[in-house]
Amino acid sequence: MTVASDTELIVVETEGQVATVRLNRPEKLNAVTQEMSDALVRIVRAINDDPAIRAVVYTGTGRAFSAGSDIATLDQYATPWEFRNRRDYCDALRELRKPVIAAVNGYAFGGGLEAALTCDIRLAADGARFAAPEITLGWIGGGGMSALLAASVGASNAALMLMTGDPIDAQRALAWGMVSEVVSADGLLARAQEIATTIASRPPIAAETAKANLRAAANLPQDQAIAYERELQGIAFATADAAEGRAAFAQKRAGVFHGR
Questions:
Q1: Rounded distance, CA 112 to CA 36, Å?
Q2: So what's the pLDDT on residue 103?
Q3: How far, rounded to the nearest angstrom, does the alpha carbon of residue 99 sit from its chain's CA centroid?
Q4: Around Cβ 27, how many Cβ atoms within 10 Å?
């Protein structure tokens, strides 16, 4: 099975077990249109359905990761209710079961910041900048901005970004815990793909279970999260991959994992 994009505005490239999904509208700072959101929904479904893909890198072309939604197109919605019910790119990213790494190559503003925060791991180029500028236009983010930002950088730092709309640079994002690493722009994609390749080499059921468990841990009371983790551990332990992992350990060899 081959995952492909049906629009030139999003490029999908697969190498080994890693798919790189790249927003490709650099002249508009990769601002996302409804056409792009709809395409991303289809791409995510195809990736989820393809067992050969075990990890994803999400990035942008040019000097921006993404400037968020294309503001020039927002008046196309007939009513606020229609806008509220649109197919959203952040919702699409949340549907990805495979681990996903954001390679933030430049501006991550508005929905672009939300998209980055939706990813499991975030790396930033040294010139990247992050902002929640919706307040300067009279509204707030709606793709998980407040919840994800507060979980990432803490309530006070989140409030600072949400209530001023001012950007922060990559080093501050690193200090606040928003990103895991800051690397040179030239090395960003390679580093993201290196991490994705490492994750893809792990047993895929365990990797997807770890992702599901982290999401549960962020949304459940601690005792329930621990109980849920124990259930997921039992499921993963019963797989053929886990049996292979134990055998490989005993035989002092690398495991070979098939997602079963």
A1: 13
A2: 98
A3: 8
A4: 8
Q: Is the dihedral of CA 12, 15, 17, 22 positive or negative?
A: negative
Phi, psi (degrees; rounded to nearest 5) at 25 = -135, 60
Mean pLDDT of the chain: 93
Count of beta carbons in the 10 Å neighbourhood of residue 246 = 12
Q: Is the pLDDT of residue 22 over 70?
A: yes
pLDDT number for residue 205: 94
Q: Do the beta carbons of residue 20 and residue 193 sit within 8 Å? A: yes
Beta bridge partners of 129: 107, 169
Q: Encoding tokens for residue 198?
A: 């490492």
Per-residue pLDDT of 165-178, as tens digits, reads: 999 999 999 999 99
- pLDDT over 70 for what percent of the chain? 97
Q: What is the pTM of this model?
A: 0.93
Which residues are marked as active site?
Answer: 114, 134
For residue 18, give the nearest of 53, 60, 58 by alpha carbon: 53
Q: Which amino acid is at 253?
A: R
Give residue 151's Cα distance to chain centre. Answer: 15
Burial of 108 (0-12, 13-18, 19+ CB in 10 A): buried
Inter-residue contact 70 to 29 (CB < 8 Å): no
